[in-house]
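Troubleshooting: if your tokenizer reports a length mismatch, compare your output against this known-good record of 372 residues.
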Amino acid sequence: MMKFNAATLTFVLVCYATSIAQTNPKTVIEDFKPSTLNQPGKEYPQVNSQGYARFKIVAPAADSVRVSLGLGGRGGTKLQKVEDGSWMGTTEGPMDEGFHYYHVDVDGGTFNDPGALNFYGSTRWESGIEIPAHDQEFYALKDVPHGKVEQILFPSKSTNTSRRAFVYTPPGYDKDPSKKYPVLYLQHGWGEDETAWSNQGRANLIMDNLIAEGKIDPFLIVMTYGMTNEIKFGGLRNFDISPFQTVLVDELIPYIDANYRTVADKSHRAIAGLSMGGMETKMITLNKPDVFSYYGLLSGGTYSPEDIKEGADVKLIFLSSGSKERPEAVKSAAAALNEAGINAVSYVSEGTAHEFQTWRRSLHELAPLLFK
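Known-good structure output:
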């Protein structure tokens, strides 16, 4: 079993950003509109054109209400009681573009916002809010042919159960029974599960749009649970990859190859993951260099030339981060890999931190590079 060193662990477990700016514009523009992730018919939470978020919680008997933003609820906005007995408040500054988890603290208790949809993160179902992004078109729902995201249950002898995965098949998959496809195995981060890349990440819409634009050749994406959430946040120094590696390599991949029309060889197989999923990606690829030819670490650490064994035949290493993380680390790591003759690409998402807008953009950049 491979152990992770403290330096890499620190990078992978960088604190999830609260994404609230430190300085305020002089005037908050009062053009607030309901978040696109609200429950049907709910007016709050709201966002404005500057990226501020405004919350309203009905809790007339409460003494204190605060909205906590980000993975694990770090940071937050204290709400004030208004005349109708509800509590309202606006973030101190604009938030980063894209998706954010949050929950509501009422008199010390943790609750979800009844006005917002819920998404699995922080090892629980959290409320979600979407800050419109200047580049949101690449993951928007458009009038283009759409693929399918199918839930499957695959047998796992090593865990003595059936396990769940989601499989994205591209538009037209059902029309040509002779066509076979490459596969990307795409992993979520700590606190999340196999629903994250479709729900928070909009991976299927990113793929649909890229295919419609003629920017990629279609491939499958497989998303499964990384068996990580029994580990406390920050307590991964001795994380054992072996159980999940067995599930992925020895059970899930054979099931996918047997039940979907895949090109079942290393050169048509990729693996990538965000944050802790990146850590898992690195560990598995170093342990099993004969399984995948394309590697992607999205805010999930780096490779060094010494990590790549001679004869491993790695076709691409993709390294990314937000500009508010450690962008120089991925840039310098990619440069060192290229100097050693290993094809590597770095990508930095401008204006974002350890959050889903970084990873949406990363997948959008990674997908056209795969299976070339």
